[in-house]
Design goal:
The protein has 594 residues and is of the alpha+beta class. It is 30% helix and 23% strand. Helix 5 (199-207) crosses helix 16 (510-524) and helix 14 packs parallel to helix 15.
């Protein structure tokens, strides 16, 4: 018989009754019933109930053990007595009668309980993460993550993609966040950068003649944490394809994503390919976001013309000065009490807006402060334009175009939540396309890249030479699901001349482009195919499938919100000798000087 186990703790069934089995695992829970000691023994695979007879040596050994001690138990498999079968357990028809027991490891007093659903503070969970990972829900999330990655890998290979691993120690790249730098001991004063993404390398793989590349890529960004973004590091399905148009990229990745979500959706509906394509400008006008949640049925409408020259002076003035007025319908809101509208108005002020105007459409006509100062025909035109019916309300946002669009999107989301309009139990995918190539940096007044700087501008070199940069669109696209951006991607700029010009417009002289991206530019000078790709976030995919609100719940060893590893004590100080070896001196701020 094997030294530790003949079966796992999730394997025994009624068909095994009469066999002698050996199990090893953690003492999940203990129950003393009149001398009989019942132990739920747990391993990676499940739970099995163990019975220790009163007065037996095995009983005496286990009786004093704390939960989470590791034991090996040997004995006969028996059928549970009638009325004690546990249908919630796969092993619930049987139990093991302990004949022998060996303690492999006795547990100390636990800093947190494994059994049960008690909630613990994040700092406790992260400091004792190896214990937290024993808990059923967290454990299942990690198994789900592994299965999702395996499914993605199989689907990508079946679609003709070849897996490569790109370097971790590399040079800095403008990906929109701060790099993590690694001092190069053999090159004093120089640093490696951990890759924010394998962007340049995957394009070089295309230039090297490999047609379809992918990897489950680790990426490193020195940025703040939030619910759907882990600080420090994350993983993405990085892929690239040669000789493709934007639609070819869509056609390649849609079946992979739809297939993975279908596989793990557990009955939740998934958008079938092809996913809807929504241009960026339309997304901002209709949803107030470039990450629209299509489960929310509300649509934003421009009603600037209905207020222009009208009796409601504030909105008429905004329209006359070139501003916009956006309308967001609220189905059935007319039946809500005044406190509902006051609460939304107060929320709008907390967001930095002046308030949130509205019209209530009742059977006898429009009501509310705006309606009292607006001509009846204009109020009716707004009702028709927004599709409102008697019993509905319409809320309004006014101001500069971009600001109004974003706040209208926030109002749409808030109303969808408050009115319980967001459809549950589904994954609604879409593509956001035609992003602006450039945007104006409000702080510096300079033109910056708005998205991926390695993207091909629509119109190519001619557009860069002849058009206002702020009007140029790029072959850039995002995959969005339920209001969460899973991926950014683009058809790449494979022409050195176009790339140099594109960076010049964003304030990078040719010499700097050569210095920072010379490796990729040189590759393109020796013949590069048109290519494009994307990089859906693995962590976010698993977070959504697990129905978890925070990305830390699907990462085995996540950092804290402050970017610290509370379990391993990272980041940590180093010795003076090590700093000298790396040719570094510290210049610490006063509050952390030592």
């Amino acid at each position: 018989m094997h030294a530790y186990r003949t079966h796992t703790c999730g394997a025994l069934r009624a068909s095994d009754v009469g066999q002698t089995a050996r199990l090893s695992g953690w003492v999940h829970s203990k129950r003393d019933h009149g001398g009989l000691l019942f132990v739920d023994l747990r391993d990676h695979y499940g739970l099995t109930q163990i019975v220790f007879a009163a007065g037996s040596p095995a009983h005496a050994t286990v009786d004093h053990l704390r939960v989470e001690s590791v034991i090996t138990v040997t004995g006969p498999v028996v059928r549970r007595e009638e009325g004690t079968v546990n249908p919630k357990l796969a092993t619930g028809e049987v139990e093991l009668r302990a004949r022998e027991v060996e303690v492999q490891s006795a547990a100390d007093v636990l800093p947190m309980q494994v059994a049960g659903d008690e909630k613990f503070p994040d700092d406790i969970r992260l400091k004792w993460r190896f214990i937290d990972l024993r808990r059923d829900k967290v454990h299942r999330n990690m198994v789900l993550r592994s299965k999702v990655i395996d499914s993605i890998r199989r689907r990508m290979i079946a679609s003709g993609f070849t897996e490569f691993q790109t370097p971790i120690l590399t040079s800095s790249s403008p990906e929109g966040a701060r790099d993590f730098l690694v001092p190069a001991r053999l090159h004093p004063g120089k640093f490696y950068a951990l890759p924010q993404a394998p962007q340049q390398f995957k394009q070089l793989i295309m230039a090297a003649g490999f047609d379809r590349y992918f990897q489950i890529a680790p990426c490193f960004r020195d940025e703040a944490s939030r619910a759907d973004r882990s600080p420090g590091e994350f993983y993405q399905l990085d892929f690239e394809m040669s000789y493709v148009t934007q639609e070819d990229v869509f056609a390649a990745i849609e079946p992979v994503l739809a297939g993975v979500f279908d596989e793990f959706a557990e009955g939740r509906a998934v958008t079938k390919p092809p996913f809807p394509r929504i241009p960026y400008d339309e997304a901002m006008a209709t949803y107030g976001s470039d990450k629209p949640d299509l489960r929310n049925p509300l649509r934003i409408t421009d009603v600037s013309g209905q207020f222009a020259g009208g009796g409601f002076g504030l909105f008429a003035r905004i329209a006359a000065e070139g501003g916009v007025i956006r309308a967001i319908p609220a189905p059935g809101a007319a039946s809500h009490p005044r406190s509902f509208f006051d609460k939304l108005n107060e929320w709008a002020r907390e967001q930095g807006a002046g308030g949130l105007g509205y019209i209530i459409y009742e059977a006898e006509g429009p009501k509310g402060p705006i309606a009292r100062n607006l001509e009846a025909d204009r109020a009716e035109a707004i009702r028709e334009r927004t599709g409102a019916h008697p019993g509905d309300a319409v809320f309004f946002v006014a101001g500069k175009k971009d600001e109004a669009a974003k706040f209208a999107g926030a109002v749409r989301t808030r109303l969808g939540t408050e009115l319980n309009l967001i459809a549950e139990g589904r994954f609604d995918f879409c593509w956001i396309t035609d992003f602006p190539m450039y945007e104006l940096n409000e702080e510096t007044g300079r033109v910056d890249f708005s998205h991926n700087p390695f993207s091909m501008p629509q119109g190519g070199m001619e557009a860069l030479l002849t058009r206002d940069p702020l009007t140029i669109k790029a072959f850039q696209y995002d995959i969005v699901c339920n209001g969460i951006e899973l991926s950014s991607g683009a058809i790449r700029n494979h022409r050195p001349d176009i790339m140099v010009k594109a960076f010049e417009i964003a304030g990078y002289p040719a010499s700097e482009v050569e210095a920072r991206f010379g490796g990729m530019l040189n590759a393109f000078r020796y013949g590069a195919p048109p290519h494009g790709g994307s990089a859906p976030g693995i962590d976010r995919i698993v977070m959504m499938l697990a129905d978890e609100p925070n990305i830390r719940e699907v990462i085995v060893f996540p950092l804290s919100q402050q970017g610290e590893d509370l379990m391993m004590g990272a980041p940590s100080e180093t010795t003076t000798e090590r700093l000298k070896e790396l040719h570094l001196k510290l210049d610490l701020p006063p509050k952390v000087r030592r």
